[in-house]
Amino acid sequence: QVQLVESGGGLVQPGGSLRLSCAASGSIFRVSTMGWYRQAPGKQRDLVASITFSSSTTYADSVKGRFTISRDNAKNMLYLQMNSLKPEDTAVYYCNADIYYQGGYRHGNYWGQGTQVTVSS
């Protein structure tokens, strides 16, 4: 019924930038809070940034001032602009969203498949 698909990951040198995108599709009535999480090998999945429908944002301390989360409600899209990337930002990045569908009568929390971000020289 509902699907999240990330794109934009890749290999970048320290100090470089990447922009991640996440597209929500399906019988969507409304996408509520959305977020980006990341998981490095051997570590738990942690919140990077989140954004409400009205675009209130929160960030992990480790990315404040370097990453910017944004969304396009008309297109059901989520973005993460990542600047001044560091090797410790290397991880699989996942999109997450709370979605109301089937006319708003049903609700679920969904994850994308993840996109790899590698920061290395």
What descriptors fit this protein?
7-stranded mixed β-sheet, about 120 residues
Task: Reconstruct the topology from this structure.
Elements: E1 2-7, E2 10-12, E3 18-26, E4 28-39, E5 46-51, E6 57-59, E7 67-72, E8 77-82, E9 91-101, E10 106-111, E11 115-119
Parallel strand pairs: 2-11
Antiparallel strand pairs: 1-3, 3-8, 4-5, 4-9, 5-6, 7-8, 9-10, 9-11
Number of beta-strand segments: 11
The portion of residues assigned to helices is: under 10%
> By helix and strand content, what is the structural category?
mainly beta
The span between the termini is 41 Å
Order of helices and strands: EEEEEEEEEEE
Q: Strand content of the residues, in percent?
A: over 45%
Number of helices: 0
Computed Rg: 14 Å
Overall description:
By secondary structure, the protein is an all-beta fold. The protein contains no helices and 11 strands. The protein has strands spanning 2-7, 10-12, 18-26, 28-39, 46-51, 57-59, 67-72, 77-82, 91-101, 106-111, 115-119. Strands 2, 4, 5, 6, 9, 10 and 11 form a 7-stranded mixed sheet that branches. A 4-stranded antiparallel sheet has the order 1-3-8-7, with no helix packed on it. Strand 4 and strand 5 (46-51) form a beta hairpin. It is elongated and about 50 Å long. The termini are far apart.
